[in-house]
Amino acid sequence: MILRVRQNPDPVLRQLAQAVPISDLPSPWLDQLIAKMSATLSASPDGVALAAPQIGEAWRVFIVGRRAFPERDLTQSWSHDLVFVNPIITRRSRRQIECTEGCLSVKDYYGVTRRYERVSVAAFDATGKKLIHHASGLMAQVFQHEIEHLDGVLFIDHARNVVHG
């Protein structure tokens, strides 16, 4: 089921998302939420990731779609979105970089943000398996952007040179 991506100033985008109870991993309601998120992200041609609040669900869940990865980085067996439940950034590099950024919930606006060059994120997958991802470049930017969504923060809150384009 493809849902409408919520747009700023929808209040759900400014809520602190709730942690998914560990006892609910795995669960049918979480599987349904992830399926809706995946369908919605797939239908958004310029999106690479999506947080649950962007579809009106204030849970600490985000997904990263295949578009975020260059084809050479994908294995043939990787055929679904990466799921992050209750993610937290556990490590950050000292160095920050400036990135051009946009958001499906702030459609057609872009700005320059400062992001840590490298981050490590701990989370659970949809089955309850603990995972840790180390990222740099675009993936580090995506992780930071999506976790901000879970904290009720939009990139426009700290971006410079925001333009409609």
List keywords for this structure.
single chain; 165 residues; alpha+beta; Peptide Deformylase; 5-stranded antiparallel sheet; 3-stranded antiparallel sheet; 18% helix; globular
How would you explain this protein's 3D organization?
This protein is an alpha+beta fold and 165 residues long. It has a single domain, classed as Peptide Deformylase. Helix content is 18%, strand content 32%. Strands 1-2-3-6-7 form a five-stranded antiparallel sheet, with helices on both faces. A hairpin with a 5-residue loop joins strand 6 and strand 7. It is globular.
Extended strand count: 8
CATH superfamily: Peptide deformylase
The spatial strand order of the largest sheet comes to: 1-2-3-6-7
Could you describe the largest sheet, including whether it forms a barrel? 5 strands, antiparallel
Give me the CATH fold name. Answer: Peptide Deformylase
Query: According to CATH, what is the class?
Result: Alpha Beta
Give the uncertain stretches in residue-range form.
none
Strand content: 25-35%
| Basic shape | globular
Task: Figure out the total of helices.
Answer: 2
Distance between the termini: 29 Å
The proportion of residues forming helix, as a percent range, comes to 10-25%
Task: Report the structural category.
Answer: alpha+beta
Q: From the alpha-carbon coordinates, what is the Rg to the nearest angstrom?
A: 15 Å
Assign the CATH architecture: Alpha-Beta Complex
How are helices and strands ordered from N to C? HEEEEEEEHE
